[in-house]
Amino acid sequence: MSLVLPRSDGHADHVFDVVRSGQHDDPNDIVARSWSRCLNEYRLHPDRPRELPVLPAKTLEERLSRMADVIDCARYEMTSLYQQLSDGETAVVLTDTEGVILHMVTSADFASQVEPMGLRVGAVWSETTAGTNGMGTCLASGAPVSVRREDHFFTAYTGLTCSAVPVYDPAGELCAVLDVSSRSSMMQQHLLVLLGMTARMIENRLIDRRFRSAHPVHFHSRPEFVYTLHEGRLAVSEDGHILAANRSALFQLGMTSVAEIRSRRVEDLFQSSLNDMVQRSVSSSFHPIVTYRANAAHRFFAVARRPAEDARAGGAMTMMPAPTPGVRPAPAARAALPRPGSGGVSTFADPRLAQQLGTARRVIGRQTPILLCGETGSGKEVFARAVHEASPHSGGAFVAINCASLPESLIEAELFGYRAGAFTGAQRTGRRGKILQADGGTLFLDEIGDMPLDLQARLLRVLEERQVTPLGTEEVHDVNFQLISASHRNLLALVDEGLFREDLYYRLAGVELDLPPLRERSDKRELIRNLLQAEGGTECTLSPEAERLLLNHPWPGNVRQLRHVLRSAVALADAQQIGPEHLPSLRGNRGVPPAETVAQPAVPVVPTEEAAEELPRLNPIQANERQVLLQLLEHHRWNVSNVAKALDVSRNTLYRKLHKLHIRISHPG
Ligand SMILES: Nc1ncnc2c1ncn2[C@@H]1O[C@H](COP(=O)(O)OP(=O)(O)OP(=O)(O)O)[C@@H](O)[C@H]1O
Predict the structure, then answer these.
(1) Which residue intervals make up region (Disordered) (predicted)?
(2) Count: domains in the chain
(3) Ligand 1 binding pocket mutation candidate from 371, 559, 624 (most atoms within 8 A of CB)
């Protein structure tokens, strides 16, 4: 079928009519404005397309080499997008700022169909040469555009629909355009969103690539968004200067340009130095740590890493960040904490937990999949590692995947991998999926309740057949791994809501273990001692009053929160015995989440002492509701009016709910 629809007279007349009628004066009508430019500025005629210029081989080669890093960063994302669209009559295209096509991902069949009309690498698709079109008009307007069939200026292109978005470099300058050209004109809005996400992924990769010797900092006001596409990303020099920032970072920090943020240092943005953030991130095994906006009460969750280039240098150098003034140097014991659960700090002395661990160790050897349920921070990953280490597959890798924080478009490639050269434009090296990496070891699927439904079907097939086929290949690999999954959500409730496949649930839950929250554990004293030792070394001690406060706290954030509180207490105590004065977040409020996670409320409302009492058992749905409410309260700094507003319920309704879920709060004094 030809893509050229020679309906010249109708289309050309329409273009002339629109421009004559002055419709192009509407600043929101991107297409009409472009048509006006084509007629009045570039002197084009809809029925007389010019042959598209194609760069000579040598010039193209130079251009490709100049843009090599952008192309490299885009290659993988473009392939993922192409796979996601799963439409053989589509091309994903990257151009430079002059509209020269640098890279294209499409099927061989579609490539041969569109080549005669100039859709190929080296061709120039600027508006001046190709009239109104996705790539050229995106460049001319500097904004995302959808150019549907008859929106094209030249009649010859009205068989295609193109959507395109700008891509910015780490300096905030437009550096490329990403476009999808297709026969289908369906779902353009959806496509623009997907393209926008892909552009952001490319931009983030470009920051990593161009600033390998800088410290990457990931942050967001909500911890679950750190490491996702929505996170703010900074590249920071060794001396704390901001070198680059992504669009989300600018937005979250209220800045308008990269130039503005480049004049700042980390301390100007957050109430912490770079060294302090790196040190705390290392100690928290790169779970997001709490930090505040400088001179404001805004709270962010952040992870600061060491430069990628340093990391590659590997064992030759030990790269501990310089100690921060006021914070004691990391004791040797901390070296035992490179990742959750490692190095003998894991404590499972609680009888219920010890029994669960025994069960898990027994069944894992018989290839029974284990599903761990429990509140966030209760130690599901630590538990899973302990099971792996005691299992027959302990010689293999423990491969953890957080299903909630992977961008949806990446999950497939992450899990299943893909082969080099499987697609036009696929990465030269290909990619080994996590399932293959876990072969002979343990695959830990964290936050499994957040996996999209269509992917659940593929995962189920892998679990049933124990075979994996990397994307874009026909190859089938046999795999043999132990499976542990975890979720803080109630999977059966998700099954009832149609959000989780029932058959997958039964595949994952060979044995289901409900890990107790910290407040219900009887080994709190031992856990506190072990964590304190890990954070502060053997010389660190607690006063009886401090220990009482720690033992009585309800710990909505569980062991993770306990670790954070102990870490700041160690720093505050500065080699002295830890007393109540070093636990400011527990002192006085006897139950509010710690200062690290909660700023002072505008109208202080705090949980009462009774909150520290043992909680009666709640069913899983109530426990979930309770957790959500605690998080909301924390988010709104325990301001009940604001939480009621956020939930669109009256304060009375909210109070009733809080009472039912045993969340007790009262005004102080
Ligand atoms: N038994 C334990 N002994 C020592 N430290 C623990 C223990 N359990 C949890 N931790 C610490 O608490 C933090 C949270 O643990 P982990 O990541 O395993 O929790 P999780 O339940 O998987 O959290 P999430 O639901 O957010 O994924 C980690 O820093 C970990 O080191």
Answers:
(1) 326-349
(2) 5
(3) 559
Ligand 1 atom nearest residue 345's Cα: 4
Residue 448 included in any domain:
yes
ipTM for the complex? 0.97
pLDDT at position 226 is 83
Point out the ligand 1 atom lying closest to the alpha carbon of residue 447.
27
Answer yes or no: do 223 and 180 share one domain. no
Gap from CA of 522 to ligand 1 centroid (Å)? 17
pLDDT band at 371 (very low <50, low <70, confident <90, very high): very high
648 CB burial (10 A radius; 0-12, 13-18, 19+): exposed
Q: For 208-217, write each residue's pLDDT tens digit.
A: 889 988 999 9
Q: Whose CA is nearest to atom 31 of ligand 1?
A: 340
Residues 6+ apart with CB under 8 A from 327: 276, 279, 571
Residue nearest to atom 12 of ligand 1 (CA): 560
Do the beta carbons of residue 232 and residue 218 sit within 8 Å? yes
Q: Convert the pLDDT of each residue in 536-549 to its tens digit.
A: 777 789 999 999 99
What's the rounded Cα separation, in Å, for the pair 484 and 227?
A: 22
Q: Which amino acid is at 25?
A: D
* Residue 381 maps to a domain: yes
Better-scored residue on pLDDT, 595 or 31: 31
At residue 442, the pLDDT reads: 95
Q: Which residues surround ligand 1 with Cβ inside 6 Å?
A: 284-285, 287, 340-341, 345-348, 374, 376-382, 446, 486, 488, 527, 531, 559-560, 563
Interval between CA 377 and ligand 1 midpoint (Å): 5
Q: Is the pLDDT of residue 591 over 70?
A: no
**Integer angstrom CA distances of residue 309 from 106, 119, 319:** 34, 38, 12
